[in-house]
Design a protein that fits this description.
With 467 residues, the protein is of the alpha+beta class. The chain folds into 4 domains: 2-89, Uridine Diphospho-n-acetylenolpyruvylglucosamine Reductase, domain 2; 96-214, Uridine Diphospho-n-acetylenolpyruvylglucosamine Reductase, domain 3; 218-337, Alpha-Beta Plaits (2-Layer Sandwich), CATH 3.30.70; 345-426, Alpha-Beta Plaits. 38% of the residues lie in helices and 21% in strands. It has 15 helices and 18 strands. It has a 7-stranded antiparallel beta sheet, sandwiched between helices. It has a 5-stranded antiparallel beta sheet with strand order 5-6-10-8-9. The structure holds flavin-adenine dinucleotide (FAD). Residues 30, 65-73, 76-77, 90, 110, 132-134, 138-139, 141-143, 145-146, 148-150, 199-200, 204-205, 332, 425-426, 429, 462, 465 line the site of flavin-adenine dinucleotide.
Length: 467
């Protein structure tokens, strides 16, 4: 292995090859669930250096685990425990290459932090709408490799729909320049879409061309208290009918999820305390502030009259709007403070969600007395985070070890029965690999394996993840 380490050192410079010292930031995932051990952490600073690293690893038959911001939630971006894999950090590829305001596109390197891309677009009066609670540390490469969703999918789609082109280093170390800024390009198979969502198993994304949008003239935010999930769905339909494409966010937060936020972040105000379900609505408008506010008030007034909303609060300032979003974004952080839980990032037809939650809550409560259910998510996209927390006072790690298989069976059987998906936006990683093998159709799995074998015949790119 010393020969490989010497070649890598020569490729990226001695300071960017880490083999000793504290490598926790690279080897331990965000949830603190998976800790691996890397042969080395290598931090290239350019596409050419990434290609040199991949060529060296391919020649030595050594596996590579690509990593961006290490905020993934399915254990896909950390090495295994063997000490034989190279951790390839993309963080130093962090340059915005170009912004084309007339074409509404931005090209940047894969290690750019999402928030920096949003800011670069905003400085030109433009919007890059991908938005998620980890945006201060996740990277564009990670967003695309995981096909991230977030809070604006309802209007703008997920990362896949925001990407026009990619630059990729292949498993053999060649560079594919597919950085097209075209909105139409029907020249054969869509290679870009193969790499988006492939979680580092087919190639290393080194740069991307992204879609931008005009900044909205006004953004308004509100919270609404609903007594049931049926009422939340009725509110969604009403808001969609009245606001059309102006409805850019529709997030639901269950009572226990907000109780966890109150426990761990007591300073955050909760304007609708006690509501069984709280909905966060966001409207983005091309009209001015006053017209937007009026339209929002009319929607919530109609919802109060229809009886699907019991109470509502509209933000009257940017600060209030940010505090409302903070409530939503603090839920994953509050869960992390509470201890490990059994996570399910699932997609369902919106119409099936109330029935799914009622039946699954009941089945879990019967199987595990005292179980605590954290339910929240992007209801407008039919995407729930349905997480199962140990009964109060029970050790979270022991709970996970004992209950995870049984809990997953109950939850995923119900998801499949409703025509849903076991992964909405977090991907498969190592967390759901077995589940995917069990639940994806054999025909689909065979095609996925054929693609993997064709693009990575030595199985060196993030092996053991996804398939
Ligand atoms: P990493 O965690 O570093 O990697 C993720 C995967 O992509 C790994 O398999 C890795 O090997 C691969 N990868 C990374 N970079 C590259 C590259 N350049 N080329 C090829 N493969 C690569 N996700 C959502 O979709 N929606 C949410 O609302 C959301 N909210 C979150 C909130 C919190 C608080 C946290 C911690 C996470 C949240 N996530 C969410 C999950 C996570 O932030 C996203 O999956 C994000 O896209 C990961 O980006 P990253 O740069 O951290 O990738």
């Amino acid at each position: 292995m010393n020969g490989l380490l010497d070649t890598l050192r020569a490729a990226v410079g001695a300071a960017q090859l880490l083999t000793e010292g504290d490598l926790t930031a690279y080897e331990l995932d965000w949830r603190r669930r998976w800790r691996g051990r890397a042969l080395a952490v290598v931090r290239p600073g350019s596409t050419a250096e990434v290609a040199a690293v991949v060529r060296a690893c391919a020649a030595a038959g050594v596996a590579i685990v690509p990593q961006g911001g290490n905020t993934g939630l399915v254990g896909g971006g950390v090495p295994d425990a063997s000490g034989s894999q190279v951790l390839l950090s993309l963080q130093r590829l962090n340059r915005i290459r170009t912004i084309d305001a007339a074409n509404l596109t931005l090209s940047c390197e894969a290690g750019c932090v999402l928030q920096a891309v949003q800011q670069a677009a905003a400085e030109q009066g433009l919007l890059f709408p991908l938005s998620l609670a980890a945006e201060g540390s996740c990277t564009i490469g990670g967003n695309l490799a995981a096909n991230a969703g977030g809070t604006q999918v309802l209007r703008f789609g997920n990362a896949r729909e925001l990407c026009l082109g990619l630059e990729v280093v292949t498993a053999s170390g060649e560079v594919w320049d597919g950085l097209s800024g075209l909105r139409k390009d029907n020249t054969g198979y869509d290679l870009r879409d193969l790499f988006v969502g492939s979680e580092g198993t087919l190639g290393i994304i080194t740069a991307a061309t992204l879609k931008l949008f005009p900044q909205p003239a006004a953004v308004t935010t509100a919270l609404a208290a609903c007594s049931s999930l049926d009422d939340c769905v009725a509110l969604l339909n009403l808001a969609r009918t009245r606001l059309g494409a102006g409805l850019t966010g529709f997030e639901v937060m269950g009572r226990f999820a907000l109780d966890l936020v109150a426990r761990h972040f007591p300073a955050l105000p909760q304007p609708l305390p006690g509501a069984p379900w709280t909905v966060l609505l966001e409207q983005s408008d091309t009209d001015g502030e006053a017209a937007a506010q009026e339209r929002f008030e009319a929607v919530l007034g109609a919802a109060l009259e229809a009886g699907c909303v019991a109470d509502a609060a509209i933000a009257s300032s940017l600060a209030q709007s940010q505090t409302m979003w903070q409530l939503r974004e603090s839920i994953p952080l509050a869960q992390a403070e509470e201890g490990l839980n059994i996570k399910h990032d699932i997609a369902l037809p919106v119409s099936a969600i109330p029935g799914f939650v009622a039946a699954t809550d009941a089945a879990l409560a019967a199987a595990i007395p005292g179980v605590r259910l954290v339910c929240f998510g992007h209801l407008g996209d039919g995407n729930l985070h349905y997480n199962v927390q140990a009964p109060a006072g029970e050790d979270a790690k022991r709970f996970l070890a004992k209950q995870e298989p049984g809990v997953n069976r109950i939850v995923y059987d119900a998801v499949v029965a409703c025509g849903g998906s076991i992964s909405a936006e977090h991907g498969i990683g190592q967390l759901k690999r077995e589940e995917l093998a069990e639940r994806k159709s054999p025909v689909a799995l065979a095609m996925m394996r054929a693609i993997k074998a064709a693009l990575d015949p030595q199985n060196l790119l993030n092996p053991g993840r996804v398939i």
